[in-house]
Design brief:
heterotrimer, A mainly alpha (320), B alpha/beta (503), C mainly alpha (338), A: mainly alpha, ABC transporter involved in vitamin B12 uptake, BtuC, B: 503 residues, alpha/beta, Rossmann fold, 6-stranded mixed β-sheet, 34% helix, 25% strand
Amino acid sequence: MSKDNIKKIILNKEKVMSAAPIIGLVLVMLAFAVLTEGKSISKVNLKVLTNQFIMTALVAIGMVYCFACGALDMSAGGSLCLSAICGALAGVKTGSLAVMIVVVIIVAMLIALVKGLLAAYLTLPVFIVTIILGSLLSAIGLVLLGDETTLSVRYIVKIKDLTAINLIFIIGFFLVAMIIFNYTKVGKACKLQGGNPLASGQSGIDEKKIIIMSFLMSGAGIALAAIITILKTKTVTAASGGSIGNDVLVAIVLGGMPLTGGPKSKISAGIIGAATITILNNGLSLCNVSNDMIQIVRGIIFIFVVFITSMTYRTKLLPR
Amino acid sequence: MKNNKEILFEAKELCKNFGSTAALKHVNLTVYRGEVRGLIGENGSGKSTISSIAAGMQPATSGEMYFKGQPHKPATMIDGAKAGFGMIVQEMGTIPGITIAQNIFLGQENLFKKHGFISLKDMYKEAKKALDAIGFTDCDPKMYIDALNMQDRKLVEIAKVMYNKPEVLVVDETTTALSQKGRDIIYKLIKQMKEENKAVLFISHDLDETMKHCDTLTVLRDGELVTTLEKSEFEPGKVKSCMVGREIGEHYYREDKICTYDKEVVIRVENVTTGRGLTENVSFELHKGEILGIGGLSHCGMHELGRAIFGEEPIVTGKVTYAPTGEEIVNARIAMKHEMGYVSKNRDIEALVLTASIRDNIIGAGFDKVSNHGIITPKSEKEYVGKQVEVLRIKCAGIDQAVKFLSGGNKQKVVFGKWIGRGTKILILDCPTRGVDIGVKAAMYEIMVQMKAEGKSILIISEEMAELIGMCDRLLIMKDGVISGELKRDDGLDEKAVIENMI
Amino acid sequence: MVRTKKITKNFIMMIIIPAVVYLIFWILCHIKGVTNFGVGTDLRVILRNTVYTGFIALAVSYNLTSGRFDFSIGATLILSTILGSIVTLQLNLGPIALLLFSLLFGAMIGCLSGLVYTLLGLPPMVVTLGLAMIYEAIGFTITKGAGVKLIGNYKLLVWSQEPYVYLLCIMIVFILYLALNKTKFGIDTGSLRGGQEIAVNTGINEKKNAIICFSIGGLCMAAAGVVNLSVLGTVTPELGLGSASYMANAFLPMFIGNILAKYFDRNTGVIMGALTQSIIFAGIGKLGVPSSWQSVITGMIVLVFFAYSFNSYKIVEFKMFKEKKAKAEAALHKGSVL
């Protein structure tokens, strides 16, 4: 086969692969609409779906920045938990909703800043360190809660209908994140750095600054998700935020994001992936598939998708 | 004298191509028993390529080899070793974190299998024998190899290679990195191989050393075998002229023969020593409108120096300053603030993000040039990048094509586009025409001349002598980390003069 | 004579860390008036935790030291113990069968993980993440979410009691000692770890080595699972990758194990590390630190260790730079003097 033909095939393969996440989402939606005989697209269910989707999407969109520059942050759950707890404590103490929200944002951004500094200046492997950090942050949250393991903010949250807030948050954050990711120096530098930090450094990109900026973006997403959690459930516990870190990891992969980040990262991976994983989880449970089977399916799909999206040519050596 | 000797190794019409570059062109080489054959040549002459093919490190593109009369086509280094080829390379071939004995018997541990387990005691005994055999007697094989310095670790490698009793020993540019003790061990081994009627291929840059220890000397140039000299014909001047005698097309490089540059100094390098590598106490000045060259052998310290001038290599003494303001260059951002640019020798690893598109790579160095109040629109990107693609005539399927699909020459054009696009005034080039075809080379030289005419400055670091001689106003030669000589274009840059300073 | 001196030195180095830590906490407790630290029941608990954490750290050490991050060890622990228990109950067998079947299942699951990794050629953290989800779910499904309950079945739950727990520990460590130090597998593991490309080029089979490493990991996790089962009387399956938290307690013992490796054997070093950690946990508890703070403190200790090991190269580099600087300044001085 001539070189040109090979190039054409590779380019087309890339086009197909970039459309795959959307196709996957549509297929999943249709499949479950059929399998549940329309229940999955009922008004009630759509409301449930949207709520779950927004949480995951907010964190996932912010996380795209970290993954894009090569920092696999697994501590989203812990960060969310600690931010929520701090905010709730402040809110209860002052009785003010505004204070609570401000504290959540400040704490989330501070945690993000610390993570960024650790990753940038101490050159620690982000993946392993954030796994430890995640449980560390939850543990700190537990300590702060003290004797009361759950904290209720029912008295300060008087808002009944959250739909408006949800929509503003998700649309607003997505737009801002997308513009910065695709049309500004920060986003572009992030992608370039994920592809080859040495080369991006020699092009004048400040590696440390980009790492810190990407953590701050994910911190923003976590802050918004934390606010929504508190407003919705009106309580915080040491388990607030739970396994969102893992959900986000799977979501981003399903959304078409290469795990190694780099120039092929897309902000849409956050939204599409979050939608896909939410519909998948929801659909499977509507079909009365037990939680464990759902997880098996997620596990297999995860490995499968990563396998397909990572066009790794087999090297002689095993990857590490 | 040679007629009675048996042929041990023979290469017939050996060719090796890397893409469009021919590293070996129809080389015929015959090595006899009891012969110590020296291989000498410039960088890129093919001397390491031919020995690595013979040892099994890489396959030839075409041609045949015979070893002891039988066809020789080793698929891996293990094959080559089994056939009787032992090769000591320049790079590190030992593994840290394990013992010296384990390093010597890497991959062959089953030799010491006893009742299912590996007898470390036996391994240590044999290792001691192997070390003693080469004369490295004050070494305890039970120790972790990390306790040894780099030179002594190389000795362990030598013990490893010699333990397999090779019939042809290849010593590839190893002596330069060794201490005197190590060199003596190698010379002794060479004598021993000769006495045992085996053969040695000795590759080195050190002409004196090569002439002293070899029986015959083969000179390679640009992938071709120029001549083989007998010991009686050994004469340094003759060898050097064989190494370089070539025709350089006059209109390929610069037309003029005069050294011109402005009095204004743009970059001042004072007593710079890099933390890593060889560069030591280097000082010079780069002027406006000057093409300054730095040349030397591949490990003379010039590559680290290039990075250091751009601010991307830690400096332990001295400093690099932007002369007009006196500001010190400590990282790429400050360098770029002063309109500097850097093209690395390791194109794929340091200069390009292979998985990114041409557009992304070129924009990567020019965010400030395309953004409008922080926003970068696709339109401004297309304009900026499109201009470079046009001016440099980059052959591609569009600016969104990933750079990894481009040919070497076009990849280099993208790197150039990165810097030219933002109007770089001080460009540092490291081996800019390596792996690039003639057409692109000529285009690059044109760009360099154009930039000089516009009053811009170029620092070109290169291992290709012809290029330096053809293009520079001034040429600094580096050897063992320091500047060993300076030549001016007016004086008539002569290849012989350059080589004198390099070796 | 020199040899016995060396053996004594190595022995002292191996036990000095846990010994010193024990002493420190003993003194601190005494100052505070606490007398039951590190003796009697407390000591039994410390030793038992050492075995449990030690097994987990051993499992992690066979992959992490070679740069492979295995997310699935927690799920392997749960699944192997569940399967071992089910078979033992079905066939109405005794504690030895429980142990052997669990170990067997652990090794098999680990082997499967290794096979998937080598066949797919994907980064290990990705592969093991997916496998962890699958193993967790299988454990959940087989037991219909209820797990295995052996409470009251004292005949089977012996593996957390003395002396059986110590015997188990010694047996496993002995086997691993032989494997890591006296077999081609062990030697290859060291070679691949220090120089992957060089080792593979000399013909060492990396895939086979990786699969064995994963199998050993699975076996060690099964051993830990059996000890845990004997303490709690139940094995509860988890979902949602909660099993990933098993790893947090393994880092510190593994670090210490790597440091002590050159004095005798890495496996024994890991156990010493686990002992140190258990002493620290027990000591902190006895000093009155609330349990919620304990995870915070241990998390921070591990982070500090991480920070050190990933930045120690900077210290080496700094020294190298200093040397080069001195050399250059000397050369310059010589030049100016001339």
